UniProtKB/TrEMBL annotation, chain A:
Described purpose of this protein according to its UniProt entry: Plays a central role in 2-thiolation of mcm(5)S(2)U at tRNA wobble positions of cytosolic tRNA(Lys), tRNA(Glu) and tRNA(Gln). Also essential during biosynthesis of the molybdenum cofactor. Acts by mediating the C-terminal thiocarboxylation of sulfur carriers URM1 and MOCS2A. Its N-terminus first activates URM1 and MOCS2A as acyl-adenylates (-COAMP), then the persulfide sulfur on the catalytic cysteine is transferred to URM1 and MOCS2A to form thiocarboxylation (-COSH) of their C-terminus.
Self-association state and partner proteins as the record states: Interacts with NFS1.
UniProt cross-references to InterPro entries, sorted A to Z: MOCS3/Uba4, Rhodanese-like_dom, Rhodanese-like_dom_sf, ThiF/MoeB/HesA, ThiF_NAD_FAD-bd, Ubiquitin-activating_enz
Protein name per Swiss-Prot or TrEMBL: Adenylyltransferase and sulfurtransferase MOCS3
Classification lineage: Eukaryota, Metazoa, Chordata, Craniata, Vertebrata
Cellular component GO terms held in the UniProt record: cytosol
Family according to the record: In the N-terminal section; belongs to the HesA/MoeB/ThiF family. UBA4 subfamily.
Origin species: Loxodonta africana (African elephant)
UniProt xrefs under PANTHER family: ADENYLYLTRANSFERASE AND SULFURTRANSFERASE MOCS3, UBIQUITIN-ACTIVATING ENZYME E1
Binding site for Zn(2+): 222, 225, 297, 300
Compartment annotation: Cytoplasm, Cytosol
Residues at the catalytic site: 239, 412
Cofactor-binding details, from the entry: Binds 1 zinc ion per subunit.
Gene name, Swiss-Prot/TrEMBL: MOCS3
Positions contributing to ATP binding: 92, 113, 137, 181-182
UniProt-listed SUPFAM superfamilies: Activating enzymes of the ubiquitin-like proteins
Automatic annotation (TrEMBL), chain B:
Primary residence: cytoplasm
Pfam family, one: Urm1
GO molecular function (one): sulfur carrier activity
Name of the coding gene: URM1
Native source species: Loxodonta africana
Family note: Belongs to the URM1 family.
Protein name: Ubiquitin-related modifier 1
Length: 460, 103
């Protein structure tokens, strides 16, 4: 018995100490970041890296496995040591990219990101860790890279890349890597690289797919040659909505690192003028030939119209972040807040709550009293779903006054799809496919419910 | 009279979501008076393969901005008589790739 007591006591003590230790680590990390932030509020000015004549004994030991590659050798390593690379975005692509650049001994790495570390970033943004949640990604990434290779100069820029700052910043670096997550930033980075004459290694990933190419290298096409017009904003899916597997951004970030290293070492890239497509579900890599540089390209053509940086958010009709957009399809009287819905629920008023999220999200979390019909099925006018809906409405008829309509509340994750669903239900009612209903949606959806009403409800 | 053509039509980068999530489609284009070009292939796709929201795929008589068209793994701009006017050959592969922006 005594032995069992001792085991229990020791376990308790270990747990206590672990908790203390983790709180100390968090305080240390926060203090370190605060120190850095106060030091680098301004746009850090960097001078060109001096040429390097020889490798030290320590450097020879450290980089020996790549030094013996005849294609790279001492010559290539010296070039890496004096190269500077600007990484735009310290997320799923930027983390593995910057990690391999630092590990390989690139002289200076600039790290741009306006965002802070969130727990939902950690499965793919592998330079950040739990202790740094809430801190700027640029500083978190720089701290991780310094631990990996103290000889590499890391310059964090914890701010958005803007038309006002981009050109100046890009001019201070030899190669630029676009690891951003939105369309306006991709045009901004491209135009800055064209104006500054810098090669751009660009990658992107979503769900199980990735794409990588090199723009504006040695007479090759730029981003605008291939995409003269931005896509309509409603066709662009972000990682929060579409999902992404961390290792897919990891594969693309590593391929990006490879292209950057080859350019910096003087070997030349493989994907200038071609686009590598990676399909992780099927395990396929496919390389396609892109068009040549367009003589009439607005950025790199013979008579360019982009002679300085513009308003890219206006050009693309979307914001320079990957945060979810808020649609405004309904009038205020067609919507209720989560607080109003909670009051209604507590009052026991007969109503129908309709959850229109995809099944995969309903599997994550749901309100148990909601009827679930995915928006896609409503959009298709799926007969079985409409039958289900009619039955659910009929069941609730008893609870409402004779002749009155059953109130229907539509909910989704954030309050965008629910508005689309309200529009569909309204038109179905008008077409008399459904009995008369009063339909409203819940503003902010289940994530607002989790934030304001029930803090045990999962956020995703 | 052009003979029927067998071509592989493929969608990727999320464009497949408008086609029930199916990426690869082996299709037979019926024989017709006019030769098959990409312009009338798009009309055929819209009528026979596209399952939802055509505006996310088609704009006017072409594809919407942000979708690349690759014929036998080359950008349709690289071909002589390219883009919408490219005349399809038997066993051609046509790939429509929606560009990704996530990172």
């Amino acid at each position: 018995m005594a032995a069992r007591d001792e085991v229990l006591a020791l376990r308790t003590e270990v747990a206590q100490r672990e908790e203390e230790l983790s709180s100390l680590k968090q305080r240390l990390a926060a203090a370190l970041l605060e120190k850095q932030e106060s030091e680098s509020e301004r746009l850090v000015l960097v001078s060109p890296l001096p040429p390097k004549a020889a490798l030290s004994r320590d450097e020879i030991l450290r980089y020996s496995r790549q030094l013996v590659l005849p294609e790279l050798g001492v010559h290539g390593q010296l070039r890496l040591a004096t190269a500077s690379v600007l990484v735009v975005g310290c997320g799923g692509l930027g983390c593995p990219l910057a990690q391999y650049l630092a590990a390989a001994g690139v002289g200076r790495i600039g790290l741009v990101d306006y965002d802070v570390v969130e727990m939902s970033n950690l499965p793919r943004q592998v330079l950040h860790d739990e202790a740094l949640a809430g801190q700027a990604k640029a500083f978190s990434a720089a701290a991780a890279l310094r631990r990996l290779n103290s000889a590499v100069e890391c310059v964090p820029y914890a701010q958005a890349l803007t038309p006002a700052t981009a050109l100046d910043l890009v001019r201070r670096y030899d190669v630029v890597a676009d690891c951003s997550d939105n369309v306006p930033t991709r045009y901004l980075v491209n135009d800055a690289c064209v104006l500054a004459g810098r090669p751009l290694v660009s990658a992107s990933a979503l769900r199980f797919e990735g794409q990588i190419t090199v723009y504006h290298y040695d007479g090759g096409p730029c981003y605008r040659c291939v995409f003269p017009q931005p896509p309509p904003a409603e066709t662009v899916t972000n990682c929060a909505d579409g999902g992404v597997l961390g290792v897919v951004t990891g594969v693309l970030g590593c391929l990006q690192a490879l292209e950057v290293l080859k350019i910096a070492a003087g070997l030349g890239p493989s994907y200038s003028g071609s686009l590598l497509l990676f399909d992780a579900l099927r395990g396929h890599f496919r390389c396609i030939r892109l068009r040549k540089r367009r003589p009439n390209c607005a950025a790199c053509g013979e008579r360019p119209t982009v002679t300085d940086l513009q308003d890219y958010e206006a050009f693309c009709g979307s914001s320079a972040t990957d945060k979810c957009r808020s649609l405004q399809l309904l009038s205020p009287k067609e919507r209720v807040s989560v607080t109003e819905y909670k009051q209604l629920l507590d009052s026991g008023t007969s109503h129908l709550l309709l959850d229109v999220r995809p099944q995969v999200e309903v599997d994550i979390c749901r309100l148990p009293h909601a009827l679930h019909i995915p928006l896609k099925r409503l959009e298709r006018g799926d007969a079985e779903s409409l039958k289900l809906l009619r039955e659910a409405v009929r069941e609730r008829k008893q609870g409402v006054q004779e002749g009155a309509a059953v109130p229907v509340y539509v909910i989704c994750k954030l309050g965008n799809d629910s508005q689309k669903a309200v529009k569909i239900l309204q038109s179905l009612t008008a077409a008399q496919e459904l009995d008369s209903l009063t339909v409203q949606d819940v503003v902010g959806g289940l994530m607002a419910w989790a934030a304001k009403i029930d803090d045990t409800f999962p956020q995703y | 009279m052009a003979a029927p053509l067998s071509v592989e039509v493929e969608f990727g980068g999320g464009a497949e979501l408008l086609f029930n999530g199916v990426k690869k489609h082996q299709v037979t284009l019926p024989g017709q008076e006019e030769p098959w070009d990409i312009r009338n292939l798009l009309v055929w796709i819209k009528k026979n393969l596209l399952k939802e929201r055509p505006e996310l795929f088609i704009q006017g008589d072409s594809v919407r901005p942000g979708i690349l068209v690759l014929i036998n793994d080359a950008d349709w701009e690289l071909l002589d008589q390219g883009e919408l006017d490219y005349q399809l050959q038997d066993q051609d592969s046509v790939l429509f790739i929606s560009t990704l922006h996530g990172g």
